[in-house]
Amino acid sequence: MSSQKIYILGIESSCDDTAAAVICNGEILSNVVATQQIHIKYGGVVPELASRAHQQHIVPVVHQALEQAGITKEDLHGIAFTKGPGLMGSLLVGVSFAKSLAMGLNIPLLDVNHMQGHILAHFIEEDGYTLPTFPFLAMTISGGHTQIVKVNDYFDMDVIGQTLDDAVGEAFDKSGKLLGLKYPAGPEIDKLAKQGNPKAFPFSKPKVGGLDFSFSGLKTAILYFIQKKVKENPNFIEENLADICASIQFTIISILLAKLKKAVKDTGITQVAIGGGVSANSGIRDALKQAEHTLGWTTYIPKFEYTTDNAGMIAITGYHKYLKQDFADITVVAKARLAI
C-alpha cells in the first residue's frame, strides 16, 4: 500500500473555521481555511452564525482544496471529517457534506477526533520537520481545550492531565476582553507582551494537584487586579498595557511549563510536542525551545498553519485510519463531546 498514491480529503468544521485539505501519503498538497470574521464584533463565537457560515463556505473551500492539490474528486480514496468535539451545528455541516460526497463517489468515510487531529498533525511530512517517535507527550492547548496526553501510538493515547474549568485559550481571550482588546485576544496579548516586563505584575498561580489545570481562578484574579488599579488610576490599562500583557502571558506559560515538567518527571518521557491554536503563541514556543536546551527535552512544534483548527490535521489522521482500514459507517453521527 505504501507504493500507491493515496489521496485523502480532510474536512474540518468543529468551530468557526471551515477548512479542507488534501493529503497524499503523508504530504499535504493543499490546506485551505475560511475564517469567519463575523464573530469579532460579538467578542466570541456565536454558534448559530458559525453553522450558517459553514454552509456558505464548505463547497467553495473543498473545491479550492482539490484545485490547489491538482486532482479531481474522482482521484480521492477516502474522505476524513471531524466527528467531534465541537459545536454541534458546525459539526453537522461537515459531517453531512462528507457523508454525501463519500456516498456519491462510493469511497470510505473516516471519522476523526478533533483532539487526536491536533496531536497527529505532528506526522505531516515536510522538509525540515522531524516526526516524533512513540511514546511522546503531547500538550494540546486551544480556546476550548487544555490537555497533556501520553501518546503510545497513532490511536493509543492516554489523557494524563486536563483543565478542570477554563481552557488556556479562554484565559487569554477573557483577560484580553478585560483590557479592551479585540477578539481573539491571544495574538494581541502575545504581540504586546514582547514590549513589556513579564514580572511587572505578579499574579498568583492556582494550586491544582497532579497534572490537571485550572484557569478560572487566574481569570478572576486578573479581573480584581484590573478593577482595583483602574479605580486608583482610570488610565492604568492604557499606561501599562504592555506590562500587563507580558505579566499575564508569563504567568500562563509558567503554569503550563510546570505541569509539563511534572509530566516528564512522572513518565520519564522526554519527547514533548505541542499543538492547538494557543501553541502559536511565541512565548510558549520560546519557553519550550529553551526547555529543550536546559532540560534535555526533544521538542516538536508544528508549523503555524497546523496549530489552529485546520483540515491538514484531519487529513493526516484520516490517512492513518485509511491505512488501518478503519472506516466509519454511513450512520456515523457528530458528537459535541468526544473523549480521546
Structure description:
The protein has 340 residues and is α/β, with parallel strands linked by helices. Helices cover 41% and strands 19% of the residues. It has nine helices and ten strands. A five-stranded mixed beta sheet has the order 3-2-1-4-5, with helices on both faces. A five-stranded mixed beta sheet has the order 8-7-6-9-10, sandwiched between helices. Strand 2 (17-24) and strand 3 form a beta hairpin. Helix 5 (186-193) crosses helix 7 and helix 7 (236-267) runs parallel beside helix 8. The model has no long low-confidence stretch (mean pLDDT 94).
Gyration radius (Cα, Å) is 20 Å
What distance lies between the first and last C-alpha atoms, to the nearest angstrom? 27 Å
Summed over residues and divided by their number, the pLDDT gives a mean of 94
Q: Helix- and strand-based class?
A: alpha/beta
Number of E-state strands:
10
Query: So how many helices?
Result: 9
Helix content: 40-55%
Strand content: 15-25%
Helix/strand order, N-terminal first = EEEHEHEHEEEHHHHEHEH
Spatial strand arrangement across the major sheet: 3-2-1-4-5
Supply the key terms:
five-stranded mixed β-sheet; 340 residues; alpha/beta; 9 helices; 10 strands; single chain
